[in-house]
Amino acid sequence: AQSVTQLGSHVSVSEGALVLLRCNYSSSVPPYLFWYVQYPNQGLQLLLKYTSAATLVKGINGFEAEFKKSETSFHLTKPSAHMSDAAEYFCAVSPPGSQGNLIFGKGTKLSVKP
Amino acid sequence: DTGVSQDPRHKITKRGQNVTFRCDPISEHNRLYWYRQTLGQGPEFLTYFQNEAQLEKSRLLSDRFSAERPKGSFSTLEIQRTEQGDSAMYLCASSLGLAGTTDTQYFGPGTRLTVL
Question: Is A49 on the interface with B (CB under 8 A)?
Answer without folding.
Answer: yes
